[in-house]
Automatic annotation (TrEMBL):
InterPro entries: Epimerase_deHydtase (IPR001509), Lipid_A_modif_metabolic_enz (IPR050177), NAD(P)-bd_dom_sf (IPR036291). It comes from the Bacteria. This is UDP-glucose 4-epimerase. Gene3D superfamilies: NAD(P)-binding Rossmann-like Domain.
C-alpha cells in the first residue's frame, strides 16, 4: 500500500485518480480548496490559500505521503477576467507548483507526479506523432506556464533528489467532462450542423479512465522515476470520426457539412479565430511509445468504450 496525496482531488481527473488509487488498496489524501469535496474513502485536507502560499504551515506533521500527484492548476478560462492572464497562469502553474513540490520534499515525500499538458510542447504535429523529446513550441500562456513548471521541477529534482515524473495528456474526455468537449456533445445532441465533414486531420485524445490508470502507474511504479510520458488512447480519430462516433453513442444523427479545411481557415482569419480553427482541424498526434516501453503500460479502455461511457453519462443528465 502506498500513501498518495492528490491535489485537485475533487476535479474531473482527480476523482478518477482517487477512485482508482483506492480500488488498488492505497491510502489517499485529497488536497482541496473547500470542505466536503472529496469522494468517500479519501482523507480530506482543505487548504484555501492561493497558490499554496501557506502550504508549509498547513501541512500536518502526521502526513508523510510516498508521492504527490499534482493535478490542481489554472486551466483555460473561457471568460478571462485577469488583468494579466500570463502572470496569473505563471503564479499558479509555475510558482504554486514549485512551492508545493519544495514543501513535499521538505516533508519527506519521495516522488512528485506533475500532470502537465501536450500544450507545453505543441498545438499541432509536424507530420509525425509528437514524442517526449520534441522541441517545445507552446502557443499560449497556459502551455508556456506548463512548460516553465516542468523545467523548474526538473531543476528542483536535480538539486534535491525528489523524483519528478511528468505526464503530458492531450484533450481529456469522459463522464463529467466540461469545456470544449462538452460543447461538442451539446451541439451533436441538439442536431446542430457542424462544418467538420472535411476535417480529416487526426488528433490524439485520452479517456479519463486511461489517464487515471497511467497516473497511478506513474505514482507507484519504481520504473517511472524521473521520466516524462505522453499519455493518450490508442489511435487518433479525425474530428469527423469523433463526431460520428459521439452521434452514434448518443443516438443522434451526425450532421456534418463537408466544408473544405481551407474555407474554415479563411473563416478563422476573417473572424479573428485562426488559432481556435487551427487547433480544431490541425493534426495533433501523440507518440505514446515511451510509457509503453518503460512501464509496459497499455490503455485499459478503447476510445469507443470511453466515448460510450461519456455518452451514457451525458444522456443521464438530459
Amino acid at each position: 500500500m502506498s500513501r498518495i496525496l492528490v491535489t485537485g482531488a475533487n476535479g474531473f481527473v482527480g476523482r478518477a485518480v482517487c477512485g482508482l488509487l483506492l480500488a488498488r488498496g492505497n491510502r489517499v489524501t485529497g488536497l482541496v480548496r473547500r470542505a466536503n469535496a472529496v469522494m468517500a474513502g479519501v482523507d480530506e485536507w482543505v487548504d484555501a490559500s492561493r497558490d499554496f502560499t501557506d502550504i508549509d504551515g498547513a501541512w500536518s506533521a502526521s502526513l508523510v505521503p510516498d508521492c504527490v500527484v499534482h493535478l490542481a492548476a489554472r486551466v483555460h478560462i473561457m471568460n478571462e477576467d485577469a488583468a494579466d492572464p500570463a502572470a496569473a497562469f505563471h503564479a499558479t502553474n509555475v510558482e504554486g507548483t514549485l512551492r508545493l513540490a519544495a514543501a513535499a520534499h521538505r516533508k519527506g515525500v519521495r516522488r512528485f507526479v506533475f500532470v502537465s499538458s501536450i500544450k507545453a510542447i505543441a498545438e499541432r504535429d509536424d507530420g509525425t506523432p509528437i514524442h517526449e523529446n520534441y522541441s517545445p513550441r507552446p502557443e499560449d500562456a497556459y502551455g508556456r506556464s506548463k512548460l516553465a513548471a516542468e523545467e523548474a521541477l526538473r531543476r528542483l529534482g536535480d538539486h534535491t533528489g525528489l523524483e519528478i515524473v511528468i505526464a503530458r495528456p492531450p484533450l481529456v474526455y469522459g463522464p463529467q467532462v466540461r469545456a470544449n468537449f462538452l460543447r461538442l456533445m451539446d451541439a451533436v445532441w441538439r442536431g446542430v450542423p457542424l462544418p467538420l465533414g472535411g476535417a480529416d486531420a487526426r488528433r490524439s485524445i485520452v479517456y479519463v479512465g486511461n489517464l487515471a490508470d497511467a497516473l497511478v502507474c506513474c505514482a507507484t511504479d519504481p520504473r517511472a522515476a524521473r521520466q516524462c510520458f505522453h499519455v493518450a488512447d490508442c489511435g487518433a480519430p479525425t474530428v469527423a470520426e469523433l463526431v460520428r462516433a459521439l452521434a452514434g453513442h448518443l443516438g443522434k444523427p451526425s450532421r456534418l457539412l463537408p466544408v473544405p479545411a481551407a474555407w474554415l481557415r479563411a473563416a478563422g482569419r476573417l473572424t479573428g479565430r485562426s488559432a481556435q480553427v487551427d487547433r480544431l482541424i490541425g493534426s495533433l498526434q501523440v507518440d505514446t511509445s515511451h510509457i509503453r516501453d518503460v512501464l509496459g503500460w497499455q490503455p485499459p479502455f478503447s476510445t469507443d468504450e470511453g466515448l460510450s461511457a461519456t455518452a451514457d453519462w451525458y444522456r443521464s443528465t438530459h
